[in-house]
Amino acid sequence: MKKFAELQYVRPDMEKIFARVSGDIAVLKEAKNYEEFRNAYMDYVEADTELETSKTVAHIRNTINLLDEFYEAEMVYFNSQMPKYEILKKEMGEVIVASPFKAEMEKEFGAILIQNMEAQKQLSDESIVNDQVKEAELVSRFMKTQAAATVEFKGEQIGNYGLLKIMQSTDRAERKEAFEAWAKLYEGIAPTLEEVYDGLVKVRAGMAKKLGFKSFIPMGYLRRRRFDYTEKELEVFRKQVREVVVPAAAKLYERQKEALGIDTLYYYDESIASPSGNPVRSEIRNILSAKPRRCTVSFPRRAESSLIS
What we know:
By secondary structure, the chain is mainly alpha-helical. 73% of the residues lie in helices and 3% in strands.
């Protein structure tokens, strides 16, 4: 199995993809039998998979280093192209849902296929293409602002992730100092993050209105394809958090306090499990080796492929 770093990335030619998918849609419209219909759909699936794979590789490499100019430019490219591609996917879905082969497609690929296509119909429209591009730009700016932020800690400029490691130090005073530095870091970038967040709220509310939703909340549920997990189910979960999770967490914090040998568990103590520190990656591997096979197969394969560090 290739390591993630060895995966070749090539920017997809969106004009060719648009032409290919448009051709598949034309075949779907004229298909005389299910075999023709299915073959056209599977060609679209192949094109879509190749596109999404390239986009995912670029996205992961961009998030690994948000200051990498090459992959930042690639994500700008994808963010400008994907809203238009979503319109094409919407057309594909409309053709399939309205076709005489809908039942056969649903039988072979499952009801979720049709549900996803019906959701796509509600979520894509020419009127929000520019808003989607703006939304992606704001999300990117939010993440990049966090990635670029640093704060002085013991004479060095340290970023968010560097502080997170020190926040798990076995030295309690050092942990507290790291948490205070972390708070100072976010205090410094708070005005920018608040500006971006305000922009996100406005652009998302605007999209929801244009698409006919009462607010962004139902649109957000549909984006996540939560067909059977609605606001009603979430309210039940919130109640369970209050009644079950919070009391259970309180008991765990008491046990953690006893394990750490301290009188009061403060916010800077919650990130450490024992006086000797948190488990390291090698210890986690040993723990998983004693678990069922479904646990022991996935972790080593991901580690060997550098999908986890």
